[in-house]
């Protein structure tokens, strides 16, 4: 426990010192980034140690604020979730020092203040064992991440993203507050140790609580349809912050959901059903939208929506099968936990990679990139590893979690009786669709950005990022590959946590032979095969000097230009035309020349978020129009304000007089 | 002694009416000072004389009777105004409202479940009536100075309530209340000067430009 507190103190001290240093970018980066890295390292050591010995450590300090005790608890579940927070916090800090160099702004330390606060508050959220402390840290996390999102607040798109994020996160926090107050009223206290009383909640109250917590945590986690802030905020934030938010902050919401679900009484079937339905909708919607995005980071943000959807789907199956089908529950829970860890690794890697592309070329637009594999080989390699992981291909780690999820639903289709067996099998089909689309999305990213020729003159001048940025990416890429090649590395901690939540999980899976350690063998075999093929190819191929570099055959065009290359839209057009319903298709204007001689044509391609455009924006506009009349209350006159106070006091006195 | 205290409290209510109905700032400040000074004597009449009550009476007399009137007079000298012209609500309606508030205060305090010792005492209705007068002053007047005066009367009302608790209230709390008041009048004085400099008038309505 002490090491964790040392970590928080380091983060706080460094965060406060960094802006105090004034306009010295190097000093700020050294103090801010250094303290973030050191603090995260301490936290990581603590979490790894706690997870390895599997014991629960705790600490409680009383405060004078009613209901709030500074109680902390580090059990395997908390330690498990601390790992992505501090791992990405450490790597993001190192990366950020390189990424921000030359773009520090007026007060370079300010970024590090918010960065350190974000890491520390996420860590407190996970270690808190008191609902009020949890909520305080939760709010701190939201605010710190908001300030990080609006780093470039002078750009209108960033300001809009910040507003949407702030709204979404505060609406979620309001729901959470409602949920926590209900919990506190029933349990008679806000300490988690008092929450054991919640297992006797009457059914309707428990269901209300479930809905409040699901929506409250869901709005942070990117639960469909509350995911709207992700595709806005992730592109706006600096890339290492996107990585931290997508890889770790989203996970804190999942942690909260799992933690509180364990307090609630055993779930009726529709809880799991709701979770599965929303998760599946999010997975399908997220990956479909991801296929249409030209903005690399926006596409990655939608991919986060998809992956969170998959995790929630698995959690839904766990909730549904809990206490009824122990083996299925164990499979689903293991799948969800594995995917949580995997997603933190590969999405962190992908966001850092996208940031490296942005840093090297100055653009996030896929249609301006191209040919970067030769210009930025290290970044390209890391992106390929990340893409392998996110599309669940061997030899990377993504396959493991998805294997558990698929296996869980297949087993459910076999075990359940009657109509109930139909749904898991449909879900398996839809999961396959999601997987196929993910393959499309990431082959598009790799193919358009890394392959071919540059589509823009600035991209031709792209430069590889420095060591500070590359090393964190290599670490993450290495971890992704290690998880795929040696699944036991991943499964060890996951099974320990699963064993804490569902004690019989690990032995059940081991007995039924459901631990896919052979996947590691498969990955190793494939890697070996690949390496052999590459060696063989090199041996058989004629020397480089004998093959002169010539342009690709341009189908007979006399003057091919780089603008004739396949665009990102062109790559995903087939999917857009043939797979999706009309409402999801991107908005396209112009671009069809039917005249005899070509003229000037303007082509526009937009893929707005359906939920945001057709759901939330009109809703908020409606509410704002209704509330406009209330503005008359704000007269700006001191007398009128005093009059308000006076009338309230008179009314209260009158009420007291009547009551007496 | 009780009778004398009650007489003073009644006088306080009468002074409320005078302030509500007068347009001359100088007279208003003098009346408020007189009200404060009278109130400062009441604890000596109601409670046995001790160090505590002596301190309370002395400090209240010094602040309410001398320091704050002096500050306010200085303020009106600096900004050169003598009268409150066209208040939000006229003087006669304000007086009627003040009467209603005073009557309400008496009726309301009859309904309160008081300790036997305080039943029938003038302290509670007088305190409520003074609070109401202070509120009315703040609501109806336009000048920042009269608003400050309203706040002063409002605080007098609180002081009257405090009389009941003199025995029980720690010294620090009372000292804090008085200090609070002094700071408030200081701040108001600064605001008065700023408004005057910015808009060449003392009307707080000009502050509505500051709203969003």
Describe the model.
- Chain A has 660 residues and is mainly α.
- Chain A has a domain at 614-659.
- Chain A has helices at 2-20, 25-53, 76-100, 108-127, 131-149, 156-187, 203-221, 230-236, 239-263, 269-290, 296-321, 326-361, 372-375, 377-390, 398-415, 422-450, 457-460, 467-485, 487-501, 505-511, 518-540, 568-578, 610-627, 638-659, and strands spanning 57-62, 69-74, 587-589, 604-606.
- In chain A, the strands form two sheets. Chain A has a two-stranded antiparallel ribbon with strand order 1-2. A two-stranded antiparallel sheet of chain A has the order 3-4.
- In chain A, strand 1 (57-62) and strand 2 (69-74) form a beta hairpin.
- The N and C termini of chain A lie far apart (54 Å).
- The model of chain A has no long low-confidence stretch (mean pLDDT 88).
- With 212 residues, chain B is mainly α.
- Chain B has one domain.
- Chain B is 75% helix and 0% strand.
- Chain B contains seven helices and no strands.
- In chain B, helix 1 packs parallel to helix 5, helix 3 (51-79) packs parallel to helix 7 and helix 5 (123-140) runs antiparallel to helix 6.
- Chain B starts with a helix and ends in a 13-residue tail after the last helix.
- The model of chain B has no long low-confidence stretch (mean pLDDT 81).
- The chains are: A mainly alpha (660), B mainly alpha (212).
Summary keywords:
heterodimer, A: 660 residues, mainly alpha, two-stranded antiparallel sheet, B: 212 residues, 7 helices, 75% helix
Task: Please give the count of helices of chain B.
Answer: 7
Structural class of chain A: mainly alpha
Approximate helicity band of chain B: over 70%
Extended strand count of chain A:
4
Average pLDDT taken over every residue of chain B: 81
User: Biggest sheet of chain A, strands in spatial order?
Assistant: 1-2
Terminal CA distance of chain A: 54 Å
């Amino acid at each position: 426990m002490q090491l964790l507190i040392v970590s928080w103190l380091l983060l706080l001290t460094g965060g406060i010192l960094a802006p105090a240093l004034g306009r010295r970018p190097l000093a700020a980066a050294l103090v801010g980034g250094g303290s973030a890295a050191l603090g995260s390292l301490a936290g990581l050591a603590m979490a790894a140690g706690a997870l390895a010995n599997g014991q629960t450590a705790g600490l409680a300090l009383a405060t004078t604020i009613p209901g709030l005790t500074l109680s902390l608890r580090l059990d395997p579940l908390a330690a498990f979730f601390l790992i992505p927070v501090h791992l990405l916090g450490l790597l993001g800090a190192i990366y950020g020092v390189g990424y921000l160099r030359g773009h520090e702004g007026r007060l370079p330390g300010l970024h590090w203040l918010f960065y350190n606060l974000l890491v520390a508050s996420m860590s407190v959220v996970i270690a808190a064992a008191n609902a009020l402390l949890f909520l305080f840290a939760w709010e701190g996390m939201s605010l710190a991440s908001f300030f990080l999102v609006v780093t470039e607040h002078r750009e209108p798109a960033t300001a809009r993203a910040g507003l949407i994020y702030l709204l979404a996160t505060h609406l979620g926090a309001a729901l959470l507050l409602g949920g926590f107050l209900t919990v506190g009223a029933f349990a008679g206290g806000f300490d988690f140790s008092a929450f054991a009383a919640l297992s006797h909640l009457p059914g309707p109250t428990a269901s209300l609580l479930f809905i409040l917590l699901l929506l409250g945590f869901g709005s942070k986690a990117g639960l469909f349809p509350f995911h709207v802030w992700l595709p806005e905020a992730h592109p706006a934030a600096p890339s290492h912050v996107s990585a931290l938010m997508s890889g770790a902050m989203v996970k804190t919401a999942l942690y909260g959901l799992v933690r509180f679900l364990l307090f609630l009484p055993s779930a009726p079937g529709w809880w799991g059903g709701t979770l599965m339905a929303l998760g599946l909708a999010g997975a399908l919607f997220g990956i479909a939208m991801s296929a249409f995005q030209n903005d690399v980071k926006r596409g990655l943000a939608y991919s986060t929506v998809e992956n969170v959807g998959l995790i929630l789907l698995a959690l839904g199956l766990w909730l549904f099968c809990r206490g009824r089908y122990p083996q299925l529950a164990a499979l689903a829970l293991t799948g969800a936990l594995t995917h949580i860890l995997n997603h933190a690794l590969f999405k962190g890697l992908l966001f850092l990679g996208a940031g490296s592309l942005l840093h090297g070329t100055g653009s996030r637009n896929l249609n301006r990139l191209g040919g970067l594999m030769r210009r930025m080989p290290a970044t390209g390699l890391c992106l390929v590893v990340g893409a392998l992981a996110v599309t669940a291909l061997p030899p990377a780690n993504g396959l493991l979690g998805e294997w558990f999820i698929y296996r869980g639903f297949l087993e459910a289709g076999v075990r359940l009786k009657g109509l109930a067996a139909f749904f898991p099998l449909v879900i398996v089909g839809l999961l396959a669709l999601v997987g196929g689309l993910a393959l499309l999305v990431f082959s598009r990213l790799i193919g358009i950005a890394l392959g071919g020729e540059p589509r823009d003159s600035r991209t031709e001048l792209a430069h590889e990022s420095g060591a500070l940025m590359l090393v964190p990416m290599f670490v993450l890429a290495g971890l992704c590959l290690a998880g795929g090649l040696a699944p036991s590395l991943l499964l060890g901690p996951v099974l320990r946590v699963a064993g804490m939540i569902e004690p019989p999980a690990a032995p059940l899976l081991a007995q039924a032979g459901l631990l896919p350690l052979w996947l590691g063998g498969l990955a190793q075999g494939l890697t070996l095969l690949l390496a052999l093929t590459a060696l063989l190819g090199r041996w058989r191929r004629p020397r480089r000097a004998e093959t002169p570099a010539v342009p690709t055959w341009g189908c007979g065009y006399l003057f091919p230009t780089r603008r004739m290359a396949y665009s990102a839209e062109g790559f995903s057009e087939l999917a857009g035309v043939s797979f999706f319903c009309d409402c999801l298709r991107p908005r396209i204007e112009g671009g069809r020349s039917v005249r005899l001689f070509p003229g000037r044509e303007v082509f526009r391609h937009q893929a707005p978020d359906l939920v945001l455009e057709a759901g939330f924006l009109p809703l908020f506009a409606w509410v704002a129009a209704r509330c406009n009349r209330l503005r008359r209350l704000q007269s700006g006159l001191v007398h009128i304000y005093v009059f308000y106070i006076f009338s309230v006091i008179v009314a209260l006195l009158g009420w007291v007089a009547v009551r007496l | 002694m009780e009778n004398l205290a009650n007489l003073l409290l009644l006088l306080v209510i009468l002074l409320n009416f005078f302030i509500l109905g007068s347009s001359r700032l100088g007279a208003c400040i003098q009346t408020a000072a007189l009200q404060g000074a009278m109130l400062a004597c009441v604890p000596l009449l109601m409670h046995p004389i001790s160090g505590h009550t002596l301190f309370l009476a002395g400090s209240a007399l010094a602040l309410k009777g001398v320091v704050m009137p002096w500050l306010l007079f200085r303020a009106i000298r600096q900004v050169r105004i003598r009268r409150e012209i066209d208040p939000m609500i006229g003087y006669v309606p304000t007086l009627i409202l003040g009467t209603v508030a005073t009557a309400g205060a008496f009726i309301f305090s009859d309904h309160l479940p008081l300790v036997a010792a305080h039943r029938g005492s003038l302290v509670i209705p007088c305190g409520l009536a003074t609070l109401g007068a202070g509120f009315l002053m703040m609501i109806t007047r336009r000048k920042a100075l009269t608003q400050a005066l309203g706040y002063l009367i409002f605080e007098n009302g609180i002081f009257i309530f405090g009389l009941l608790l003199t025995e029980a209230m720690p010294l620090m709390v009372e000292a804090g209340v008085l200090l609070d008041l002094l700071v408030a009048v200081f701040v108001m004085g600064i605001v008065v000067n700023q408004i005057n400099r910015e808009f060449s008038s003392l009307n707080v309505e000009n502050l509505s430009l500051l709203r969003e």
